[in-house]
């Protein structure tokens, strides 16, 4: 049997359907990872590769954290599973209280899920169900944003705005629409573009079109990450919140990436952008990407409506077999211990200006069309390569940087950076030097 890449046979290579449509480009020469520690992966060829994307925007505490492994091990030896149906265990209650301590009293419950996608589905369903239970049965419309990404489920793709994710599915949820993407017209803006309320006020046009009585909820990311690291103008979320409040529309802020330190605070919507959403979703870094875990934070009063109706047959029958899985909760507790001890929820704000200068230093390359940044996030948008497949240049850079020891993320024409929060300024220099060299070599 012939051996292909990574020491796998052709049959083995064919057997795993790699997620996301990048298969076409990536499966031809997959990169295999064998080990991970601190900021580094080690490939099957023994190469050390600095992780400049926190895995997939999720390993914020860095890799190989023995404390998490130990907590998971001990949990599995003590209570490996507790059915989520009509039973539970202590950990999710304790974890919820601990997480809620980072939010104002406006939030009162946490619902656990296994991914960002499930967090989005859960929040969307909660929003719809809340209005139904409140007697506002006409409120069924869900509004997302162009280039928004909330996951792979039908709810998420119906409100999401990345055309590739929904192209093959004509039968999505009915009654959805999208706000236009909030992106400044001028390239190379550092941090948030200048205040421009017209972006958020596009919601008023949708209210005019459909009437507020039919709109249940709006869902947006603080920064659209998968859409290309698009940073909305200053005051965007605040204005959206005002309009939603005025028109009795629930606001869901998808902090699957942006919570837990990515933008310099435990929860960016509340602390950085000064709004109180009705639901905050998170996942990714909650268990540092090592065990699937996500959560929906619910504003006070919402749960009470569900409770007040729960003696009827219209209970909110929603959950997952692995909701509040004991090992995942134990991992999240250990992650909180680490983040609190090492000050990682606030680390991005210390590094932000250094990071900003560093990423914007790549502006000189003729292949670079725009650079955007916020917290410890950056997107470097390239000029598309004429006559090549979309994303060809970022794919080339992804491969070349990997060979030179840096993992970046190719995201259409945008190269995304999202390093672990344990990064030092010298590591930032290293990433930028490799990127700068490799940009310089592009044809
Ligand atoms: N929301 C956002 C903002 C995301 O970035 C992602 C994943 N990139 C998701 C939801 C979906 O998360 P998951 O892949 O864990 O389902």
What would your notes on this structure say?
The chain has 443 residues and is of the alpha/beta class. The chain has two domains: 31-60 and 344-441, Aspartate Aminotransferase, domain 1, CATH 3.90.1150; 69-342, Type I PLP-dependent aspartate aminotransferase-like (Major domain) (Aspartate Aminotransferase, domain 2, 3-Layer(aba) Sandwich). It is 35% helix and 16% strand. The protein is built from 16 helices and 15 strands. The strands form three sheets. Strands 4-10-9-8-7-5-6 form a seven-stranded mixed beta sheet, with helices on both faces. It has a four-stranded mixed beta sheet with strand order 1-2-3-13. α10 (236-246) links the parallel β7 and β8. The longest helix has 18 residues, at 116-133. The radius of gyration is 22 Å and the shape is globular. The model has no long low-confidence stretch (mean pLDDT 94). It binds 4'-deoxy-4'-aminopyridoxal-5'-phosphate. 4'-deoxy-4'-aminopyridoxal-5'-phosphate binds next to α6. GO terms for molecular function: adenosylmethionine-8-amino-7-oxononanoate transaminase activity; beta-alanine:pyruvate transaminase activity; pyridoxal phosphate binding.
């Amino acid at each position: 049997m012939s051996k292909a890449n990574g020491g796998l046979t052709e049959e083995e290579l064919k057997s795993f359907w790699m997620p996301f449509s990048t298969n076409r480009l990536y499966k031809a020469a997959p990169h295999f990872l064998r080990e991970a520690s601190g900021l580094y992966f080690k490939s099957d060829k023994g190469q050390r590769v600095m992780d400049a994307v926190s895995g997939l925007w999720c390993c914020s505490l860095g890799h190989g954290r023995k404390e998490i492994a130990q907590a998971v091990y001990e949990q599995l030896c003590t209570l490996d599973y507790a059915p989520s149906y009509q039973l539970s265990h202590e950990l999710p209650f304790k974890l919820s209280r601990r997480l809620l301590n980072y939010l104002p009293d406006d939030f009162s419950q946490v619902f656990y899920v296994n991914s960002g996608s499930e967090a989005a589905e859960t929040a969307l369903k909660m929003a719809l169900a809340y209005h139904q239970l409140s007697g506002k049965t006409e409120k069924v419309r869900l509004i997302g944003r162009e280039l928004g990404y909330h996951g792979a489920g039908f709810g998420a793709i119906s409100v999401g705005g990345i055309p590739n994710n929904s192209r093959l599915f004509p039968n999505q949820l009915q009654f959805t629409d999208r706000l236009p993407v909030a992106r400044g017209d001028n390239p190379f803006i550092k941090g948030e573009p200048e205040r421009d309320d017209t972006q958020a006020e596009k919601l008023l046009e949708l209210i005019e079109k459909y009437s507020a009585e039919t709109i249940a909820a709006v869902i947006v990311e603080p920064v659209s990450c998968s859409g290309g690291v698009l940073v909305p103008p200053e005051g965007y979320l605040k204005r959206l919140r005002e309009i939603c409040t005025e028109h009795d529309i629930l606001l869901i802020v998808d902090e699957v990436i942006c919570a837990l330190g990515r933008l310099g605070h435990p929860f960016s919507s509340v602390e950085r952008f000064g709004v109180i959403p009705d639901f905050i979703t998170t996942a990714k870094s909650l268990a540092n990407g090592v065990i699937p875990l996500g959560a929906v934070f619910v504003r006070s009063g919402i749960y009470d409506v569900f409770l007040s109706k729960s003696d009827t047959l219209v209970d909110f029958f929603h959950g997952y077999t692995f909701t509040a899985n004991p090992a995942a909760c134990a991992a999240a507790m250990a992650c909180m211990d680490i983040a609190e001890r090492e000050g990682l929820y606030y680390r991005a704000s210390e590094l932000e200006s250094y990071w900003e200068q560093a990423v914007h230093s790549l502006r000189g390359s003729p292949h670079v069309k725009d650079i955007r940044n916020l917290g410890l996030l950056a997107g470097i948008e390239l000029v598309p390569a004429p006559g090549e497949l979309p994303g060809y240049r970022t794919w080339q850079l992804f491969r070349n940087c990997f060979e030179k020891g840096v993992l970046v993320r190719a995201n259409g024409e945008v190269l995304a950076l999202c390093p672990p929060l344990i990064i030092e300024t010298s590591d930032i220099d290293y990433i930028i030097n490799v990127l700068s060299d490799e940009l310089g070599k592009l044809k």
